[in-house]
Design goal:
Peptide Deformylase; 4 helices; 8 strands; binds nickel (II) ion
């Protein structure tokens, strides 16, 4: 396995539409996924999309760890580390939630982004099996964030209020001003992906 270089905001690879993978079980896809997992874990992220490592392919990895849920939470709030090939999603409800996001391609920055809070997503596992899962809250957020990367969209491009964009170090001060707009639990949702 190899640690990969992570593209940072401003590099054109992050603005391109990634290509559909013809064969999810191809050996080069498996190798890419192994390297992406190593790279994401090394960077302490919770999600990574192939364009972030200069591979314009529709491949994402993500996790929504159970330890993030302080009050238990629904089963659909959580996901183990998952690799998905050619992922897609659709909202189950129109409800949007504002939550803090980071991105390994935008180090040191956090912003509040509106996302669907309840989605269904589909894709292929590296063994070729097709999966469909429901996702809520942070699990839904990280999947939407990673799929956005496959379409050349970075989280600041989704923001409707750029006053909610902050350096991580300033966020504590910032939260005092933003608390009227951001939900209290969104404070936890600032892990980079
Ligand atoms: Ni990201």
């Amino acid at each position: 396995m190899t640690l990969l270089k992570i593209a940072r905001m401003g590099h054109p690879v992050l603005l391109q539409t990634a290509e559909v993978i013809a064969d999810p079980t191809a050996r080069n896809v498996g190798r890419l996924l192994e390297d992406m997992v190593e790279t994401m874990e090394d960077a302490a992220g919770v999600g990574l999309a192939a364009p972030q490592v200069y591979e314009g392919k529709r491949v994402i990895i993500f996790k929504s760890p159970r330890e993030r849920g302080e009050d238990g939470g629904a089963e659909s709030d959580f996901s183990p580390l998952t690799a998905l090939i050619n992922p897609e999603f659709e909202p189950v409800q129109d409800e949007l939630a504002l939550g803090w996001e980071g991105c390994l391609s935008i180090p040191g920055i956090t912003g509040a982004v509106l996302r669907y809070s309840h989605i269904v997503y589909r894709g292929y596992l590296p063994n070729g099996e097709e999966v469909e899962r429901e996702a809520t809250n942070f699990h839904a957020r990280v999947v939407q964030h990673e799929i956005d990367h496959l379409d050349g969209v970075l989280f600041p491009m989704r923001m409707t209020d750029l006053s909610l964009l902050s350096f991580n170090e300033e966020l504590k001060v910032f939260m005092e001003h933003a608390s009227a707009q951001a939900t209290a639990d969104a404070n936890e949702e600032n892990l980079p992906s």
